[in-house]
Amino acid sequence: ARDFLDKCLKKNPTDRVSIRELLNHDFLIKNQ
């Protein structure tokens, strides 16, 4: 969960991952 949140909350928008990458993140896949 920590990794998922870290990727969502990057200050610089260019450092953030895409929504597609977030939807395929292990955290979401394991908790469906």
From TrEMBL:
InterPro entries: Kinase-like_dom_sf, Prot_kinase_dom. SUPFAM superfamilies: Protein kinase-like (PK-like). One of its GO terms (molecular function) is protein kinase activity. It comes from the Eukaryota. Residues 1-28 form the Protein kinase domain. This is Protein kinase domain-containing protein. It comes from Nymphaea colorata (pocket water lily).
